[in-house]
Write a structure and sequence with these properties.
Number of strands: 9
Distance between the termini: 65 Å
Number of domains: 1
Shape: flat
Number of helices: 1
Radius of gyration: 28 Å
Strand content: 35-45%
CATH topology: Immunoglobulin-like
Structural class: mainly beta
CATH class: Mainly Beta
CATH architecture: Sandwich
């Protein structure tokens, strides 16, 4: 009986030491790369067209309502995205490259931001984020892509592939 108790105690002691020592092992972890530019999407909308009514004051002081509409090319819709883009690494001289920010569909097709999306502010998408080169700080606002209607309900991903800032943000699955 005494030999059984000693064997049991020795086994428990060995087990406890094994558990304790296994917790002391160093684990190799891959460090998370620091992004130079961080992109956050706070909202996105898919629109067939945009419309607004503007009240215009005439020379005589009277006002008239003027209807404005903006439509994408036939077979396309607007993908309007509200983003915050901020520079994480202020030591880096890398500027934000708009040509590297694309929307990919489920088939792997890429779509670039419209060259001129200044019309967004007329339809209350304010502020519009500049399309000029970003060098530092935090920038936020709306931007616009034109995508085919056929991919608008499928998987959409915002992808930035510049050096030191690889990101993929799923908009919809």
């Amino acid at each position: 009986m005494r030999k059984t108790n000693l064997t049991l105690v020795a086994f428990l002691l060995f087990f406890c030491l094994t558990v304790i020592l296994s917790g002391c092992q160093t684990h190799k972890t891959t460090p998370t790369p620091t992004l130079v530019w961080q992109i956050e999407v706070s909202k996105f909308e898919i629109m067939n067209n945009l419309s607004a009514i503007e009240s215009v004051t005439q020379y005589n002081g009277s006002k008239i309502d003027v209807a404005h509409t903006q439509s994408p090319d036939a077979g396309n819709v607007y993908l309007i995205i509200k983003v915050i883009i901020h520079k994480e690494d202020n030591q880096s001289t890398a500027s934000f490259d708009w040509q590297q920010l694309v929307v990919n569909d489920g088939s792997g097709n890429s779509y670039h931001r419209l060259a001129n999306d200044t019309f967004l502010e007329q339809y209350q998408y304010t502020p519009r984020i500049t399309g000029l080169e970003l060098r530092f700080g935090e920038n936020s606002g709306w931007m616009c892509y034109e995508i085919p209607v056929s991919v608008a309900t499928g998987k959409l991903t915002l992808v930035y592939t510049a050096e030191e800032s690889q990101q993929e943000i799923t908009l919809q699955k």
